[in-house]
Amino acid sequence: MRKDAPEKVSQSELTFPVEELEPLLSGPSSTLAPFEPAMVKLKNGKTLVLRELRRDEAPKLLAFLKKLLDVDHDFYDIVGVRVYAEVLGWLRSRLKDPYQMIGIIDGKLAGFCNGRKMTDDVHISLHSMAYQRGGRVGAAVYYAKTQYAFETLGAKEWWSTFESYNGWMRWGVGMAQPSYPWPDIQHELGGAKVYYITKEYWDSTVKGYMKQVVGGELVRPVPADLLKASENVEFPDKPEV
Ligand SMILES: CC(C)(COP(=O)(O)OP(=O)(O)OC[C@H]1O[C@@H](n2cnc3c(N)ncnc32)[C@H](O)[C@@H]1OP(=O)(O)O)[C@@H](O)C(=O)NCCC(=O)NCCS
User: Fold this and answer.
1) Can you name the CATH fold of 35-229?
2) Nearest residue to 78 (alpha-carbon basis) of 144, 147, 143, 161
3) Residue 79 Cβ contacting ligand 1 at under 6 Å
4) Fewer Cβ close by (within 10 Å): the C or N end of the chain?
5) Residues 46, 64: Cα–Cα separation, whole Å
6) pLDDT of res. 27
7) Cβ atoms within 10 A of the Cβ of 78, count?
8) So what's the pLDDT on residue 59?
9) Could you state, in order of their start, the residue ranges of all structural domains in the chain?
10) Rounded Cα–Cα distance for residues 141 and 98 (Å)
């Protein structure tokens, strides 16, 4: 857009280094407290280790997520492509206050979850994914990120929406989540209905339900040898979901 200057100016052109533009596009750097690694024994007897996704691992995860586009069932394609955008949004600093964790079984990527702090009070549940089926990995990663939002970051509300029947059954119906009037209030994932959990509901009910579904509590600290074994994660060559 161009408009005549309302005053004589000594320089008719000003230039900005991109370092000065970047703070306008990305906002303040995130200062979220770290997620303390946790582990849980799954219903199939395997131990799932949960920890933050490292930036150096993101390219491998992105390459894996691309392959989910060709999965034709259980909504892995749409959730995969949205997670791709969110991980890239985190890497490129185009998402406000995101957090992302991975689940690891025997050194191999088994699950992913993410969310973000929209405001101090309201956190958004972005996505949960299981890359190994049958062990309730998805439930465990959902438990971890929701616990982190409420108990580490101090969220007062947790807003979800559901793309898949599995997610809706386990979390929407399973937790008897209420929803806000729609379309008055819309979730940022495409404008669908917002389902929400309050901190009070988390404390009184949902936390206990998650423990039941996962089949155990998230245990901390993770022993050093197990943490070490989960450092260099193997990313699957192809999705087996
Ligand atoms: C939703 C999701 C995270 C739930 O993960 P989960 O808790 O690990 O559960 P699964 O989807 O693997 O399995 C659900 C049930 O079907 C069974 N199941 C489904 N597909 C299976 C498969 N291919 N092999 C073995 N079991 C399978 C599981 O054993 C489980 O049964 P259970 O309830 O008796 O334990 C997972 O289905 C997923 O990643 N879906 C794609 C992405 C998605 O929809 N995310 C949520 C968006 S709302």
Assistant:
1) Aminopeptidase (3.40.630)
2) 161
3) yes
4) N
5) 23
6) 84
7) 15
8) 97
9) 35-229
10) 15
Estimate to the nearest angstrom the gap between the alpha carbon of 30 and the chain centroid: 15
Which residue's CA lies nearest to atom 29 of ligand 1? 134
Nearest to 99 by CA among 121, 114, 89: 114
How far does residue 241's CA lie from ligand 1's centre (Å)? 9
Q: How far is the CA of 164 from the centre of ligand 1 (A)?
A: 10
Locate the ligand 1 atom nearest the alpha carbon of residue 160 and give its number: 48
3-state helix, strand, coil split of the chain in percent (to 5) is: 35, 20, 45
Tell me the pTM: 0.96
With a 6 A CB cut-off, is 162 part of the ligand 1 pocket? yes
* pLDDT on residue 206: 97
- Can you tell me which atom of ligand 1 is nearest the CA of 241? 23
At 47, list the tokens.
Answer: 């131990």
Number of residues that this document lists for the chain: 241
| pLDDT, tens only, 125-180 | 999 999 999 999 999 999 999 999 999 999 999 999 999 999 999 999 999 999 99
Q: How, if at all, do strands 122-130 and 157-160 pair?
A: parallel
Mean pLDDT (whole number) for 208-215: 96
pLDDT in tens, 100-109: 999 999 999 9
| Sheet containing 122-130: order of strands | 38-41, 47-52, 98-105, 108-117, 122-130, 157-160, 195-198
What is the distance between the alpha carbons of residues 145 and 152, in angstroms, rounded to a whole number? 10
Distance CA 16, CA 19 (A): 8
